[in-house]
Amino acid sequence: MKKRIVDLRSQEPLLDIVSYGRGGRALTQEAREHISRTVRRVPEVIVKVSGGARTLSGVERHLDYIGRSGKMEVEGDGGERLQKERFEQDLVYDWDLDLEAREHRTERSIRGMRKPPKLVHNLVFSMPAGTPAKALLRAVRKFAIEEFALKHRYLMVLHTDDPHPHVHMVVKAVSEQGTRLNIRKATLREWRKKFAEQLREQGVPANATERAVRGRPRASLRDGIYRAHQRGESIRVNRHLEESRPMDIGNVASTRRARLIETNDAIKKGWGQLQQRLVEDGDISLAQDVGRFIGRMGAVHTDQELALHELRTRVHERHEERVR
Fold first, then answer.
1. What is the mean pLDDT of residues 112-118?
2. Is the dihedral of CA 31, 37, 40, 44 positive or negative?
C-alpha cells in the first residue's frame, strides 16, 4: 500500500492549522484544546484496517487468530462473551455469512470470476504502552455501539500480550439493512476523532491528528514490515538498501522528497501563523507552547535516505566486529 501525504490544499486534516492561522476558521475552545493536546504530544490514537476476508475460511482463520483458538474472551455486539474453541463456525452462520458468500460466489461466476467483495472488515484500535487496557476496551465498546449498533454486526477482543494494548474488531461488511460499509480515508479520520473522544471520556489522554500536521510527514513502517526489518528480512527495506547503495545521502533527489519538504514547509508556516494569531488573541501561554513545538520539528527524510543510513550503520557495525 502506498503511503499518503496529507495535501493541505485539497484535504481537510483533523487539525486545520493552515485555516486557523489565516483566520479562516474561528478558534473555538474545542479547537484550542485540540491545539494544546497536539503541541503537548498527547498520545495519538491508532485506528487501522488490518485486512478483511472474502471467504468463509478467511473469516474463520482470522477469528481463530484473534480469539487465540478459544483462549481469549471475545465480546459480541449484544454484550455476549464467546470463549470456546471453534466459536467462529457458529458465528459465520449467526451472521449469515454463508448465505452471502454463496450469493456472491454465484454472481462472481456469472461475471467471469471477478474477485468477490469482503465479507468482513478487520480493524485494530490501539494506544501506546501504559494505556489502561480496560479503559481502552470501554472506549472501543462505546465507539462500536455508536457507530455500528443495529446496523453492522461486530465483535471485539482485547489483546494485552504485547506492550501496546489493542482491540481487534471484526465488522460485517454488509449491514442488516443491506448497505455495504466502504472504509475510505475520510472514514478513518472520523473514526480516529471519535475514538479519541471516547478515550478522553474514560479519563485517558488521547489525541487524533495527522502525522504531517505534527511535523512527522513520513509514515512509520507497518507492523509486519517493522518486525521483518528487525530480523533483517524485510523485502521492502532491503530493496531500499539496494537502490540507495550507490548514492550519497545528501544527494538523494526524488519526487517524494520534494513533496515531503513542500508539505513540511506548509506545516511549519501554518503553525507559525497560528502562533501569531494566538499572540494577537492574548493566549500567550498556548502561543509559547506552539513556539516550542515548532522548534522541536525535525528534518524530513525519505525511505531511501533512511535505508541508506541503515546500510551505513550495518557496514560500520560489521567493520567494528572484524576489528575486534
1. 76
2. negative
